[in-house]
Amino acid sequence: MKIAILPGDGIGKEVIPVAFDMLRLILPGAELVQVDVGYERFRREGKAMTEEDIDLVRSCDCVLFGAITTPPKRDYRSVILTLRSELGLYANIRPFKSSAISPFKVDFTIYRENSEDLYLGLEDVTEDEVRSTRVITKKASERIARMACKNPGLKKLTIVHKANVLKSCALFRDCCIEVAEGLMVPYEEMLVDAMAYNLIRCPSRYDTIVTTNLFGDILSDEAAALIGGLGLSPSANIGDKYALFEPVHGSAPDIAGKDVANPIAAVLSTKMLLEWAGKREEAEKVQRAVDTILQERIFTPDLGGIYKTSDVKHSLLKLIEAEI
């Protein structure tokens, strides 16, 4: 198995090495290919990622990605958006499940359409006005709905939109309903503002949520608060051929280099990678190690603890070594 390792910027360079060392332990035969991409490289060399980098990533089976800084520059294209486009990663999957420290009892997954919406970057910019074009297509809406309907934990599909205002959302809603009905999947629909409210008020009622790119981005950050924070939130970007796994959090330049970043989200993203690759037993070992860390309250400062990134790393590796 060949895995591209892209730490990126900021704390990505601190949390991904934890996952890297864990992969070396748990998959000793895997080829781990490190690729330097991101804004820090852009500042050094004038390019955040080259065509050669993309070709190297394509030669791998999947990607483990850290975090990226995307400055508001017209000449800078987001690395993660580029990778999602180049690799055809149309489904962003973000699971949220209670742990020993979660303030709420939840177990749901957000399926976020990952290839269009406002994130296409179709903008007309003038001095006095910016017009951003939102693109929602039938093809993309149907395929994310089909992906959501495959969720092993599915009991009822919740389709989130703003169809009472936006015709683009009406198309998304109708496509999702058609897919759900065709697959005989129970469903409900909800306006995104009502969803934002109910996700806090009664999160335990949901198991599978499907929505558009922008709404999914916002709702999944909100959902992270239900399980203890962004430092515990993993994600997967899935396409027909490739997959990329990354923690939900950003590059956090304010704490970069201080050895205080929480590596758990990166570790759980690696667990998702192992599941995708069919390595169920290895994925379970990772989950057990994380559960033990949380039960023993080996917390970085974002969770109210006193431990450093390196402390969590050593504890995780020791737990996994004990199982090998």
UniProtKB/TrEMBL annotation:
Its EC number is 1.1.1.41. Keywords: Oxidoreductase. PROSITE patterns: IDH_IMDH. GO terms for biological process: isocitrate metabolic process; tricarboxylic acid cycle. Residues 2-316 form the Isopropylmalate dehydrogenase-like domain. It comes from the Archaea. InterPro entries: IsoCit/isopropylmalate_DH_CS, IsoPropMal-DH-like_dom. SMART domains: Iso_dh. The keyword Oxidoreductase applies. GO terms for molecular function: isocitrate dehydrogenase (NAD+) activity; magnesium ion binding; NAD binding. Pfam families: Iso_dh (PF00180). Belongs to the isocitrate and isopropylmalate dehydrogenases family. This is Isocitrate dehydrogenase.
